[in-house]
Amino acid sequence: MPVHLPQSEFERLAREALASLPEEFRRCLPGMELRIQDYPEDDLMVEWGLRPPHYPFGMYDGPSIAETTGSRRRLEGTMVLYKRPLEEWCRDRNELHDQIERTVYHELGHRLGFEEDDMPEPVAPGAGMPLECDPAAEAPRYQEQAQSDLAAARATLEAGCFDWALSAALAAAQTAAEAFLLRNGDDPLELGLESLAQVLDAAAEVDPELADFEDLIRLDEINPEMGEEGVPPPCRRIDRARAERAVARVAALIERLADRPESSTSAANGGS
Description:
By secondary structure, the chain is mainly alpha-helical. The chain has helices spanning about 5-20, 25, 40-50, 85-90, 95-110, 135-160, 160-185, 195-205, 215-220, 235, 240-260, 260-270, and strands at about 30-35, 60, 75-80.
């Protein structure tokens, strides 16, 4: 289950992460403010091209040391950690502590002047602790994330944000199908399954009844992103009916996948 800490306890973990930085990194901290927020502001999500439930863990706002020509003794800037996405990702306090440290290193990398694609270790981005060796052991995390994505889809549907609801619902469908594959011993990442269509096809090979949900692939072909100039924005191109159908079908898929016993795969593979 996700971890939820009081604000004061979360702030303490964040400050411990800063205090544990090597000395050469701590020299870069004077003048930087640490701020804890539940979620990023909507305008930032739009600027980053992100939509719920795909939230970042943190952000650095301010000049980098590399581009500063004046004194670097006290460089202004703000590191923001997003509490709720971090908590929702992690299963226990130790993992939350680990992910906060990773996020602090990553945002400090931006303060040092690195871009996303050229960050060296230990400031390169990372999400959570390494995967378990057994794919099935990772399945519960994916199942929990699928339920969280579905909840986000329902909330944004209720709020009238139909494009966001569609995106969150399809994210829930893909994560739920990935959980199903993991539970049956297949790692979607190792298999190179990157799209919803690929993941659903692989799941249907394990359980042919899941082919009933191929209509989700057609819904996935609806582009929820900003189009070219002159094309109406997604909020006007995606109507309530399509969003409602996506949410309903994904809810049914998640329920169907939850009902599939692990033994069904063993039987399909000749038993154990």
